[in-house]
User: Which sequence fits this backbone?
């Protein structure tokens, strides 16, 4: 029988865990429960970003806030967001060539 001990690395904000420190450090940077996270969608530059809204809801609930009465449908909101971003890019392409 072979017994191996391994280190397990845990996210400081959620329950995610891995066997590599680099992996969990990358996760923590973008974890939606991290109040100082860097958004992968908007780099924290857009107040209408669905991922940032989702993160705020998760953090609020974790800190004892109420669950929203209307469910937040992240997939639906992301699709709408990307459609709007595409429209803006097309408009800019037409105007600025």
Assistant:
């Amino acid at each position: 029988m072979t017994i191996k001990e391994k280190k397990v690395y845990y996210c400081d904000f959620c329950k995610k865990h891995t066997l590599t420190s680099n992996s969990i450090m990358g996760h923590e940077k973008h974890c939606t429960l991290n109040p100082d996270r860097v958004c992968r969608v908007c780099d924290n530059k857009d107040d209408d970003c669905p991922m940032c809204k989702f993160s705020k809801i998760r953090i609020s609930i974790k800190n004892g806030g109420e669950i929203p009465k209307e469910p937040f449908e992240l997939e639906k909101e992301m699709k709408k967001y990307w459609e709007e971003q595409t429209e803006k890019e097309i408009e800019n392409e037409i105007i600025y060539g």
